[in-house]
Write a structure and sequence with these properties.
The chain contains 7 helices and no strands. The protein is mostly helical and about 160 residues long. It has one domain: Arp2/3 complex 21 kDa subunit ARPC3. The model has no long low-confidence stretch (mean pLDDT about 95).
Length: about 160
Amino acid sequence: MTYRVARISVFSAFSVIGSFLHLPSPIQTVALDSAPGFFAALFYGAFDGALVSGIGHLATASINGFPLGILHFPIAFGLAGAGGVIGLVSRMRFTGSFGLGLILGIAINVGLVVLVVPVLGWDWAIAFTPFLIIAATINAAIAALAYGSVKGRLRI
Protein backbone atom coordinates (compact mmCIF):
# COMPACT_ATOMS: atom_id res chain seq x y z
CA MET A 1 0.00 0.00 0.00
CA THR A 2 2.79 2.43 0.90
CA TYR A 3 4.50 1.59 -2.36
CA ARG A 4 1.34 2.38 -4.33
CA VAL A 5 0.90 5.74 -2.58
CA ALA A 6 4.52 6.62 -3.34
CA ARG A 7 4.11 5.54 -6.97
CA ILE A 8 0.94 7.61 -7.42
CA SER A 9 2.69 10.57 -5.80
CA VAL A 10 5.67 10.30 -8.14
CA PHE A 11 3.50 10.08 -11.25
CA SER A 12 1.34 12.93 -9.99
CA ALA A 13 4.53 14.96 -9.65
CA PHE A 14 5.33 14.09 -13.27
CA SER A 15 1.88 15.43 -14.15
CA VAL A 16 2.76 18.69 -12.41
CA ILE A 17 5.91 18.91 -14.51
CA GLY A 18 3.84 18.22 -17.63
CA SER A 19 1.42 20.96 -16.63
CA PHE A 20 4.17 23.50 -17.29
CA LEU A 21 4.53 22.21 -20.87
CA HIS A 22 1.61 23.99 -22.50
CA LEU A 23 0.34 23.27 -25.96
CA PRO A 24 -1.05 26.12 -28.09
CA SER A 25 -4.63 26.64 -26.98
CA PRO A 26 -7.06 29.36 -25.90
CA ILE A 27 -6.96 27.94 -22.34
CA GLN A 28 -3.64 27.36 -20.59
CA THR A 29 -4.67 24.11 -18.97
CA VAL A 30 -4.07 22.24 -22.22
CA ALA A 31 -0.69 20.71 -21.46
CA LEU A 32 1.26 17.49 -21.25
CA ASP A 33 -0.15 16.65 -17.83
CA SER A 34 -2.19 13.61 -18.90
CA ALA A 35 0.71 11.55 -20.24
CA PRO A 36 1.86 10.35 -16.78
CA GLY A 37 -1.69 9.35 -15.88
CA PHE A 38 -2.14 7.52 -19.16
CA PHE A 39 1.20 5.76 -18.66
CA ALA A 40 0.25 4.79 -15.11
CA ALA A 41 -3.00 3.35 -16.48
CA LEU A 42 -1.14 1.29 -19.07
CA PHE A 43 1.62 0.09 -16.77
CA TYR A 44 -0.09 -0.24 -13.38
CA GLY A 45 -3.79 -0.44 -14.18
CA ALA A 46 -7.03 1.47 -13.93
CA PHE A 47 -6.86 2.60 -10.30
CA ASP A 48 -3.42 4.18 -10.54
CA GLY A 49 -4.20 5.69 -13.94
CA ALA A 50 -7.43 7.20 -12.68
CA LEU A 51 -5.87 8.78 -9.61
CA VAL A 52 -2.86 10.19 -11.45
CA SER A 53 -5.02 11.54 -14.29
CA GLY A 54 -7.47 13.27 -11.94
CA ILE A 55 -4.78 14.67 -9.66
CA GLY A 56 -2.78 15.76 -12.71
CA HIS A 57 -5.64 17.86 -14.04
CA LEU A 58 -6.27 19.50 -10.68
CA ALA A 59 -2.57 20.34 -10.43
CA THR A 60 -2.60 21.90 -13.89
CA ALA A 61 -5.75 23.88 -13.13
CA SER A 62 -4.25 25.08 -9.85
CA ILE A 63 -0.97 26.15 -11.43
CA ASN A 64 -2.88 28.12 -14.06
CA GLY A 65 -5.28 29.79 -11.62
CA PHE A 66 -8.37 27.66 -12.29
CA PRO A 67 -9.36 29.51 -15.50
CA LEU A 68 -12.64 27.57 -15.70
CA GLY A 69 -13.36 27.89 -11.99
CA ILE A 70 -15.23 25.07 -10.30
CA LEU A 71 -15.66 23.29 -13.65
CA HIS A 72 -12.17 21.88 -13.18
CA PHE A 73 -13.44 19.48 -10.52
CA PRO A 74 -15.87 17.57 -12.79
CA ILE A 75 -13.25 17.76 -15.55
CA ALA A 76 -10.72 16.14 -13.18
CA PHE A 77 -13.29 13.46 -12.34
CA GLY A 78 -13.82 12.87 -16.07
CA LEU A 79 -10.10 12.61 -16.68
CA ALA A 80 -9.88 10.12 -13.84
CA GLY A 81 -12.49 8.15 -15.77
CA ALA A 82 -10.38 8.39 -18.91
CA GLY A 83 -7.35 7.04 -17.04
CA GLY A 84 -9.45 4.24 -15.58
CA VAL A 85 -10.87 3.25 -18.95
CA ILE A 86 -7.41 3.20 -20.51
CA GLY A 87 -6.22 0.91 -17.72
CA LEU A 88 -9.22 -1.41 -17.93
CA VAL A 89 -9.53 -1.75 -21.68
CA SER A 90 -5.81 -1.99 -22.45
CA ARG A 91 -5.51 -5.02 -20.15
CA MET A 92 -8.29 -6.96 -21.84
CA ARG A 93 -7.13 -9.97 -23.80
CA PHE A 94 -8.15 -9.24 -27.39
CA THR A 95 -6.33 -7.93 -30.40
CA GLY A 96 -6.26 -4.16 -30.39
CA SER A 97 -7.21 -3.67 -26.73
CA PHE A 98 -4.15 -1.47 -26.15
CA GLY A 99 -5.04 0.89 -28.99
CA LEU A 100 -8.75 0.80 -28.17
CA GLY A 101 -8.02 1.75 -24.57
CA LEU A 102 -6.01 4.78 -25.70
CA ILE A 103 -8.65 5.80 -28.25
CA LEU A 104 -11.39 5.60 -25.63
CA GLY A 105 -9.25 7.63 -23.22
CA ILE A 106 -8.73 10.30 -25.88
CA ALA A 107 -12.46 10.31 -26.67
CA ILE A 108 -13.40 10.76 -23.01
CA ASN A 109 -10.80 13.50 -22.61
CA VAL A 110 -12.14 15.38 -25.63
CA GLY A 111 -15.78 14.71 -24.74
CA LEU A 112 -15.33 16.55 -21.47
CA VAL A 113 -15.57 19.78 -23.45
CA VAL A 114 -19.36 19.53 -23.06
CA LEU A 115 -18.93 20.42 -19.39
CA VAL A 116 -18.05 24.00 -20.34
CA VAL A 117 -21.05 24.48 -22.65
CA PRO A 118 -23.35 25.95 -19.95
CA VAL A 119 -20.73 28.57 -19.13
CA LEU A 120 -19.03 29.30 -22.46
CA GLY A 121 -21.55 28.09 -25.04
CA TRP A 122 -21.49 25.62 -27.93
CA ASP A 123 -19.58 27.90 -30.29
CA TRP A 124 -16.64 28.11 -27.94
CA ALA A 125 -16.76 24.38 -27.14
CA ILE A 126 -16.72 23.45 -30.83
CA ALA A 127 -13.86 25.87 -31.51
CA PHE A 128 -11.88 24.45 -28.58
CA THR A 129 -12.36 20.79 -29.54
CA PRO A 130 -9.50 20.56 -32.10
CA PHE A 131 -7.05 21.77 -29.44
CA LEU A 132 -8.25 19.05 -27.09
CA ILE A 133 -8.01 16.37 -29.77
CA ILE A 134 -4.41 17.29 -30.54
CA ALA A 135 -3.41 17.55 -26.88
CA ALA A 136 -5.08 14.29 -25.84
CA THR A 137 -3.51 12.48 -28.79
CA ILE A 138 -0.05 13.82 -27.96
CA ASN A 139 -0.45 12.82 -24.31
CA ALA A 140 -1.61 9.32 -25.30
CA ALA A 141 1.23 8.95 -27.82
CA ILE A 142 3.82 9.92 -25.19
CA ALA A 143 2.33 7.42 -22.75
CA ALA A 144 2.21 4.67 -25.38
CA LEU A 145 5.80 5.28 -26.47
CA ALA A 146 7.03 5.32 -22.87
CA TYR A 147 5.08 2.18 -22.07
CA GLY A 148 6.34 0.40 -25.17
CA SER A 149 9.92 1.27 -24.32
CA VAL A 150 9.80 -0.04 -20.72
CA LYS A 151 7.25 -2.88 -20.96
CA GLY A 152 8.89 -6.11 -19.89
CA ARG A 153 12.13 -4.39 -18.89
CA LEU A 154 11.09 -2.31 -15.93
CA ARG A 155 10.20 -3.80 -12.56
CA ILE A 156 8.69 -1.11 -10.37
